[in-house]
Amino acid sequence: MSKTLLLPPRSLSFIVFESVASIALIILSLVGNVLILTALYRNPRLRNTTNNYIAALAVTDLLSACVPGTLFASTLIAGRLVFGMPLCRLSGFLVHFLTYFSMTTMTLTAVNRYFRVVRPQLYRKLFTKTRSRGILVVLWLVIAGFVFYPTALDMGTFTFNPVLSFCAYTFASQSAETVFTVTVVCVFVVFSLSVICVCYYHVSKEIRRHNVGIRLSLQGVSVQEINLSKVLFIVAFAFALCWIPTFVVVLIIRVILDGAPHELAVVIPFLIQTSSVLNPLIYGVLSPPFRREFRRLFTPKWRARSGDINSNASSPTGQIGLALEQISIGHPCTGDDSRRQGDGSDELAQFPSLKVAWSV
How does residue 306 score in pLDDT terms, banded at 50, 70 and 90? Predict the structure, then answer.
Protein backbone atom coordinates (compact mmCIF):
# COMPACT_ATOMS: atom_id res chain seq x y z
CA MET A 1 0.00 0.00 0.00
CA SER A 2 1.45 3.35 -1.07
CA LYS A 3 2.02 5.80 1.78
CA THR A 4 0.37 8.51 -0.30
CA LEU A 5 -2.95 6.64 0.11
CA LEU A 6 -2.68 6.25 3.90
CA LEU A 7 -3.98 8.76 6.42
CA PRO A 8 -1.63 10.20 9.06
CA PRO A 9 -1.52 8.34 12.40
CA ARG A 10 -4.59 9.06 14.58
CA SER A 11 -5.67 8.08 18.05
CA LEU A 12 -8.42 5.49 18.44
CA SER A 13 -10.80 7.98 20.02
CA PHE A 14 -10.28 10.42 17.15
CA ILE A 15 -10.87 7.65 14.59
CA VAL A 16 -14.17 6.72 16.26
CA PHE A 17 -15.26 10.37 16.47
CA GLU A 18 -14.47 11.09 12.81
CA SER A 19 -16.11 7.87 11.61
CA VAL A 20 -19.35 8.33 13.58
CA ALA A 21 -19.61 12.02 12.69
CA SER A 22 -19.08 11.45 8.96
CA ILE A 23 -21.66 8.64 8.81
CA ALA A 24 -24.18 10.70 10.77
CA LEU A 25 -23.78 13.64 8.36
CA ILE A 26 -24.35 11.37 5.35
CA ILE A 27 -27.53 9.89 6.84
CA LEU A 28 -28.93 13.29 7.87
CA SER A 29 -28.18 14.76 4.46
CA LEU A 30 -29.76 11.86 2.59
CA VAL A 31 -32.92 11.80 4.71
CA GLY A 32 -33.38 15.57 4.81
CA ASN A 33 -32.84 16.28 1.13
CA VAL A 34 -34.94 13.30 0.03
CA LEU A 35 -37.74 14.75 2.17
CA ILE A 36 -37.41 18.11 0.41
CA LEU A 37 -37.55 16.57 -3.07
CA THR A 38 -40.43 14.31 -2.06
CA ALA A 39 -42.37 17.28 -0.68
CA LEU A 40 -41.82 19.22 -3.91
CA TYR A 41 -42.94 16.20 -5.96
CA ARG A 42 -46.05 15.44 -3.90
CA ASN A 43 -47.35 18.98 -3.45
CA PRO A 44 -47.98 20.93 -6.69
CA ARG A 45 -48.41 24.13 -4.68
CA LEU A 46 -44.71 24.02 -3.84
CA ARG A 47 -43.61 23.90 -7.49
CA ASN A 48 -42.84 27.55 -8.13
CA THR A 49 -39.86 29.36 -9.58
CA THR A 50 -38.20 29.96 -6.22
CA ASN A 51 -38.50 26.32 -5.22
CA ASN A 52 -36.69 25.37 -8.43
CA TYR A 53 -33.58 26.74 -6.74
CA ILE A 54 -34.42 24.89 -3.52
CA ALA A 55 -34.75 21.66 -5.52
CA ALA A 56 -31.41 22.33 -7.22
CA LEU A 57 -29.75 22.82 -3.83
CA ALA A 58 -31.29 19.58 -2.55
CA VAL A 59 -29.98 17.66 -5.56
CA THR A 60 -26.46 19.06 -5.10
CA ASP A 61 -26.55 18.18 -1.40
CA LEU A 62 -27.65 14.63 -2.23
CA LEU A 63 -24.83 14.22 -4.74
CA SER A 64 -22.37 15.60 -2.20
CA ALA A 65 -23.49 13.05 0.39
CA CYS A 66 -23.53 10.12 -2.04
CA VAL A 67 -20.13 10.53 -3.72
CA PRO A 68 -17.67 12.83 -1.88
CA GLY A 69 -19.36 12.16 1.48
CA THR A 70 -19.24 8.39 1.09
CA LEU A 71 -15.61 8.43 -0.06
CA PHE A 72 -14.70 10.73 2.84
CA ALA A 73 -16.41 8.52 5.44
CA SER A 74 -14.93 5.29 4.07
CA THR A 75 -11.46 6.85 4.11
CA LEU A 76 -11.79 7.95 7.73
CA ILE A 77 -13.01 4.50 8.79
CA ALA A 78 -10.37 2.48 6.89
CA GLY A 79 -7.51 4.93 7.37
CA ARG A 80 -6.72 4.84 3.65
CA LEU A 81 -8.25 5.45 0.24
CA VAL A 82 -10.68 2.56 -0.18
CA PHE A 83 -11.92 3.24 -3.70
CA GLY A 84 -9.73 3.58 -6.78
CA MET A 85 -8.35 6.73 -8.35
CA PRO A 86 -11.10 7.08 -11.01
CA LEU A 87 -13.73 7.49 -8.27
CA CYS A 88 -11.30 9.69 -6.36
CA ARG A 89 -11.01 12.06 -9.34
CA LEU A 90 -14.79 12.09 -9.79
CA SER A 91 -15.20 12.91 -6.12
CA GLY A 92 -12.63 15.71 -6.37
CA PHE A 93 -14.44 17.20 -9.36
CA LEU A 94 -17.80 17.03 -7.56
CA VAL A 95 -16.42 18.64 -4.39
CA HIS A 96 -15.45 21.75 -6.35
CA PHE A 97 -18.38 21.71 -8.78
CA LEU A 98 -21.13 21.21 -6.18
CA THR A 99 -19.58 23.80 -3.85
CA TYR A 100 -19.49 26.55 -6.47
CA PHE A 101 -22.90 25.58 -7.84
CA SER A 102 -24.43 25.83 -4.36
CA MET A 103 -22.93 29.28 -3.83
CA THR A 104 -24.19 30.66 -7.12
CA THR A 105 -27.62 29.09 -6.59
CA MET A 106 -27.83 30.83 -3.22
CA THR A 107 -27.01 34.06 -5.02
CA LEU A 108 -29.73 33.47 -7.62
CA THR A 109 -32.21 32.76 -4.83
CA ALA A 110 -31.36 36.07 -3.17
CA VAL A 111 -31.84 37.92 -6.48
CA ASN A 112 -35.15 36.09 -6.92
CA ARG A 113 -36.33 37.27 -3.49
CA TYR A 114 -35.21 40.83 -4.26
CA PHE A 115 -37.38 41.05 -7.39
CA ARG A 116 -40.29 39.23 -5.73
CA VAL A 117 -40.50 41.67 -2.80
CA VAL A 118 -38.84 44.88 -3.97
CA ARG A 119 -39.64 44.80 -7.71
CA PRO A 120 -42.77 42.61 -7.95
CA GLN A 121 -43.83 44.24 -11.22
CA LEU A 122 -40.75 42.78 -12.94
CA TYR A 123 -40.77 39.43 -11.17
CA ARG A 124 -43.22 37.62 -13.44
CA LYS A 125 -41.37 38.75 -16.56
CA LEU A 126 -37.91 37.76 -15.34
CA PHE A 127 -38.53 34.62 -13.29
CA THR A 128 -40.65 32.24 -15.32
CA LYS A 129 -40.25 28.50 -14.80
CA THR A 130 -38.58 28.01 -18.18
CA ARG A 131 -36.16 30.88 -17.71
CA SER A 132 -35.25 29.81 -14.17
CA ARG A 133 -34.47 26.28 -15.31
CA GLY A 134 -32.51 27.60 -18.28
CA ILE A 135 -30.39 29.76 -15.97
CA LEU A 136 -29.61 26.72 -13.81
CA VAL A 137 -28.54 24.69 -16.87
CA VAL A 138 -26.26 27.49 -18.13
CA LEU A 139 -24.84 27.89 -14.65
CA TRP A 140 -24.17 24.15 -14.49
CA LEU A 141 -22.23 24.24 -17.76
CA VAL A 142 -20.19 27.35 -16.91
CA ILE A 143 -19.15 26.06 -13.48
CA ALA A 144 -18.33 22.60 -14.87
CA GLY A 145 -16.07 24.26 -17.44
CA PHE A 146 -14.40 26.41 -14.78
CA VAL A 147 -13.67 23.42 -12.54
CA PHE A 148 -12.38 21.33 -15.44
CA TYR A 149 -10.15 23.93 -17.11
CA PRO A 150 -7.03 23.37 -14.90
CA THR A 151 -7.10 19.70 -15.87
CA ALA A 152 -7.70 20.46 -19.55
CA LEU A 153 -4.74 22.87 -19.63
CA ASP A 154 -2.46 20.55 -17.60
CA MET A 155 -2.33 23.12 -14.80
CA GLY A 156 -3.50 20.66 -12.18
CA THR A 157 -5.06 17.29 -11.49
CA PHE A 158 -7.27 15.68 -8.86
CA THR A 159 -5.25 13.56 -6.43
CA PHE A 160 -5.85 12.02 -3.05
CA ASN A 161 -4.83 14.26 -0.14
CA PRO A 162 -4.19 12.14 2.99
CA VAL A 163 -4.26 15.18 5.30
CA LEU A 164 -7.66 16.31 4.00
CA SER A 165 -8.85 12.69 3.69
CA PHE A 166 -10.44 13.31 0.32
CA CYS A 167 -9.49 14.13 -3.27
CA ALA A 168 -8.71 17.71 -4.28
CA TYR A 169 -6.77 19.69 -6.83
CA THR A 170 -2.99 19.44 -6.92
CA PHE A 171 -1.57 22.19 -9.12
CA ALA A 172 1.54 22.01 -11.28
CA SER A 173 2.85 25.34 -10.00
CA GLN A 174 2.31 27.76 -7.13
CA SER A 175 1.21 30.50 -9.52
CA ALA A 176 -1.52 28.30 -11.02
CA GLU A 177 -2.79 27.43 -7.55
CA THR A 178 -2.77 31.08 -6.50
CA VAL A 179 -4.70 32.20 -9.60
CA PHE A 180 -7.32 29.48 -9.15
CA THR A 181 -7.72 30.11 -5.41
CA VAL A 182 -7.96 33.88 -5.76
CA THR A 183 -10.53 33.53 -8.56
CA VAL A 184 -12.66 31.20 -6.44
CA VAL A 185 -12.51 33.48 -3.39
CA CYS A 186 -13.28 36.65 -5.37
CA VAL A 187 -16.09 35.25 -7.54
CA PHE A 188 -17.75 32.53 -5.48
CA VAL A 189 -17.20 33.94 -1.99
CA VAL A 190 -16.77 37.72 -1.98
CA PHE A 191 -19.01 38.53 -4.95
CA SER A 192 -21.71 35.96 -4.12
CA LEU A 193 -21.93 36.92 -0.46
CA SER A 194 -21.97 40.61 -1.36
CA VAL A 195 -24.92 40.13 -3.73
CA ILE A 196 -26.73 38.03 -1.13
CA CYS A 197 -26.24 40.65 1.59
CA VAL A 198 -27.35 43.54 -0.65
CA CYS A 199 -30.46 41.70 -1.88
CA TYR A 200 -31.66 40.61 1.55
CA TYR A 201 -30.91 44.04 3.00
CA HIS A 202 -33.27 45.63 0.48
CA VAL A 203 -35.84 42.88 1.03
CA SER A 204 -35.87 43.44 4.80
CA LYS A 205 -35.93 47.21 4.33
CA GLU A 206 -38.92 46.97 1.97
CA ILE A 207 -40.86 44.73 4.33
CA ARG A 208 -40.27 47.07 7.26
CA ARG A 209 -41.21 50.10 5.17
CA HIS A 210 -44.49 48.56 4.12
CA ASN A 211 -45.82 47.98 7.63
CA VAL A 212 -44.61 44.38 7.93
CA GLY A 213 -46.02 43.22 4.63
CA ILE A 214 -49.58 44.57 4.74
CA ARG A 215 -49.09 46.94 1.83
CA LEU A 216 -46.96 44.38 0.04
CA SER A 217 -49.87 41.95 0.14
CA LEU A 218 -51.89 44.49 -1.83
CA GLN A 219 -49.16 44.41 -4.51
CA GLY A 220 -49.46 40.63 -4.88
CA VAL A 221 -46.71 39.68 -2.41
CA SER A 222 -48.33 37.30 0.05
CA VAL A 223 -47.40 36.69 3.67
CA GLN A 224 -46.22 33.27 2.52
CA GLU A 225 -43.76 34.92 0.15
CA ILE A 226 -42.47 37.16 2.94
CA ASN A 227 -42.01 34.17 5.23
CA LEU A 228 -40.19 32.35 2.43
CA SER A 229 -37.83 35.31 2.03
CA LYS A 230 -37.04 35.16 5.73
CA VAL A 231 -36.38 31.41 5.60
CA LEU A 232 -34.13 31.74 2.56
CA PHE A 233 -32.16 34.50 4.24
CA ILE A 234 -31.53 32.20 7.21
CA VAL A 235 -30.48 29.43 4.79
CA ALA A 236 -27.98 31.80 3.15
CA PHE A 237 -26.72 32.93 6.56
CA ALA A 238 -26.21 29.33 7.71
CA PHE A 239 -24.49 28.53 4.42
CA ALA A 240 -22.10 31.45 4.96
CA LEU A 241 -21.36 30.22 8.49
CA CYS A 242 -20.15 26.95 6.99
CA TRP A 243 -18.27 28.27 3.98
CA ILE A 244 -16.51 31.35 5.32
CA PRO A 245 -14.58 29.24 7.90
CA THR A 246 -13.92 26.67 5.15
CA PHE A 247 -12.18 29.18 2.90
CA VAL A 248 -10.39 30.73 5.86
CA VAL A 249 -8.89 27.32 6.64
CA VAL A 250 -8.03 26.82 2.95
CA LEU A 251 -6.20 30.14 2.83
CA ILE A 252 -4.37 29.38 6.08
CA ILE A 253 -3.23 25.99 4.77
CA ARG A 254 -2.20 27.13 1.29
CA VAL A 255 -0.85 30.62 1.94
CA ILE A 256 0.29 30.82 5.57
CA LEU A 257 1.22 27.33 6.71
CA ASP A 258 1.96 25.70 3.35
CA GLY A 259 0.42 22.56 4.82
CA ALA A 260 -1.47 21.67 7.98
CA PRO A 261 -2.01 18.83 10.46
CA HIS A 262 -4.83 16.40 9.82
CA GLU A 263 -6.85 17.74 12.77
CA LEU A 264 -7.07 21.19 11.13
CA ALA A 265 -7.34 20.16 7.49
CA VAL A 266 -10.18 17.67 8.12
CA VAL A 267 -12.36 20.60 9.21
CA ILE A 268 -12.82 21.47 5.51
CA PRO A 269 -14.65 18.29 4.37
CA PHE A 270 -16.64 18.21 7.62
CA LEU A 271 -17.91 21.76 7.01
CA ILE A 272 -18.76 20.83 3.41
CA GLN A 273 -20.86 17.89 4.61
CA THR A 274 -22.46 19.97 7.37
CA SER A 275 -23.71 22.54 4.86
CA SER A 276 -25.60 19.71 3.08
CA VAL A 277 -27.48 18.93 6.29
CA LEU A 278 -28.55 22.42 7.30
CA ASN A 279 -31.00 23.27 4.51
CA PRO A 280 -33.59 20.54 5.26
CA LEU A 281 -33.43 21.34 8.99
CA ILE A 282 -34.10 25.02 8.35
CA TYR A 283 -36.99 24.35 5.97
CA GLY A 284 -38.49 21.81 8.36
CA VAL A 285 -38.37 24.16 11.33
CA LEU A 286 -39.08 27.58 9.79
CA SER A 287 -41.06 27.02 6.58
CA PRO A 288 -44.75 26.23 7.27
CA PRO A 289 -45.45 24.73 3.79
CA PHE A 290 -42.50 22.35 4.01
CA ARG A 291 -43.20 21.61 7.67
CA ARG A 292 -46.79 20.65 6.86
CA GLU A 293 -45.66 18.47 3.97
CA PHE A 294 -43.01 16.75 6.12
CA ARG A 295 -45.67 16.07 8.76
CA ARG A 296 -47.94 14.52 6.12
CA LEU A 297 -45.13 12.24 4.97
CA PHE A 298 -44.82 10.77 8.47
CA THR A 299 -48.53 10.75 9.30
CA PRO A 300 -50.81 7.82 8.31
CA LYS A 301 -53.35 8.86 5.69
CA TRP A 302 -56.39 8.13 7.86
CA ARG A 303 -55.01 10.20 10.75
CA ALA A 304 -54.05 13.10 8.46
CA ARG A 305 -57.53 13.07 6.88
CA SER A 306 -59.36 13.04 10.21
CA GLY A 307 -57.02 15.68 11.64
CA ASP A 308 -57.64 18.03 8.71
CA ILE A 309 -61.41 17.64 9.02
CA ASN A 310 -61.39 18.25 12.77
CA SER A 311 -59.13 21.29 12.53
CA ASN A 312 -61.21 22.80 9.73
CA ALA A 313 -64.45 22.26 11.61
CA SER A 314 -63.22 23.51 14.99
CA SER A 315 -61.39 26.71 14.04
CA PRO A 316 -62.66 29.94 12.44
CA THR A 317 -59.81 29.96 9.97
CA GLY A 318 -60.65 26.39 9.05
CA GLN A 319 -64.25 27.33 8.37
CA ILE A 320 -63.07 30.24 6.24
CA GLY A 321 -60.75 27.89 4.37
CA LEU A 322 -63.62 25.46 3.69
CA ALA A 323 -65.79 28.31 2.48
CA LEU A 324 -63.06 29.57 0.16
CA GLU A 325 -62.56 26.04 -1.14
CA GLN A 326 -66.27 25.73 -1.91
CA ILE A 327 -66.20 29.07 -3.70
CA SER A 328 -63.19 28.03 -5.77
CA ILE A 329 -64.94 24.78 -6.72
CA GLY A 330 -68.10 26.61 -7.73
CA HIS A 331 -66.30 29.31 -9.72
CA PRO A 332 -63.54 28.44 -12.16
CA CYS A 333 -60.43 30.58 -12.01
CA THR A 334 -60.25 33.67 -14.15
CA GLY A 335 -57.71 34.25 -16.87
CA ASP A 336 -55.45 36.07 -14.44
CA ASP A 337 -55.65 33.24 -11.92
CA SER A 338 -54.80 30.65 -14.52
CA ARG A 339 -51.83 32.72 -15.60
CA ARG A 340 -50.62 32.90 -12.01
CA GLN A 341 -50.89 29.17 -11.62
CA GLY A 342 -49.19 28.65 -14.94
CA ASP A 343 -46.04 30.50 -13.96
CA GLY A 344 -45.88 28.73 -10.62
CA SER A 345 -46.43 31.70 -8.28
CA ASP A 346 -48.93 29.79 -6.11
CA GLU A 347 -49.74 32.62 -3.79
CA LEU A 348 -52.28 31.96 -1.07
CA ALA A 349 -55.16 34.24 -0.20
CA GLN A 350 -54.12 36.54 2.63
CA PHE A 351 -55.93 38.57 5.25
CA PRO A 352 -54.85 42.24 5.60
CA SER A 353 -54.58 41.91 9.37
CA LEU A 354 -51.82 39.31 9.18
CA LYS A 355 -48.35 40.58 10.07
CA VAL A 356 -44.98 38.96 9.63
CA ALA A 357 -41.96 39.90 11.71
CA TRP A 358 -38.67 40.36 9.89
CA SER A 359 -35.40 40.63 11.69
CA VAL A 360 -31.91 40.57 10.30
Answer: low
**CA dihedral for 160, 258, 155, 267, sign (positive or negative):** positive
Residue 20's pLDDT band (cuts 50, 70, 90): very high
Q: How far is residue 16 from each of residues 13, 26, 76, measured CA to CA in Å?
A: 5, 16, 9
Question: For the segment 204-243, what is each residue's pLDDT rounded down to a tens digit?
Answer: 888 777 655 555 554 555 666 667 777 777 877 887 777 7
What distance in Å separates the CA atoms of residue 88 and residue 4, rounded to the nearest whole number?
13
Is residue 345 helix, strand or coil? coil
In one-letter notation, the amino acid at residue 184 is V
Q: Note every long-range contact of 316-325, with CB atoms under 8 Å and residues 24 or more positions apart, other chains counting.
A: 324/349
Whether the pTM exceeds 0.70: the reply is yes
Q: Alpha carbon of 52 to those of 130, 244, 299, 341: distances in Å?
A: 10, 25, 26, 15
Closest CA to 358 of 102, 78, 23, 117: 117
Q: What is the pLDDT of residues 69-82, one digit of tens each?
A: 999 999 999 988 88
Beta bridge partners of 157: 170
Q: How far apart are CA 310 and CA 322, in angstroms?
A: 12
- CATH topology for 12-298 is Rhopdopsin 7-helix transmembrane proteins (1.20.1070)
- Would the pLDDT of 144 be above 50? yes
Cα dist. 328→88, 175, 288, 350 in Å? 55, 65, 23, 15
Could you give the CA distance from residue 117 to residue 226 in angstroms, rounded to a whole number? 8
Domain spans, the chain: 12-298
Q: Is 127 exposed, middle or buried (0-12, 13-18, 19+ CB in 10 A)?
A: buried
C-beta separation of 29 from 69 below 8 A: yes
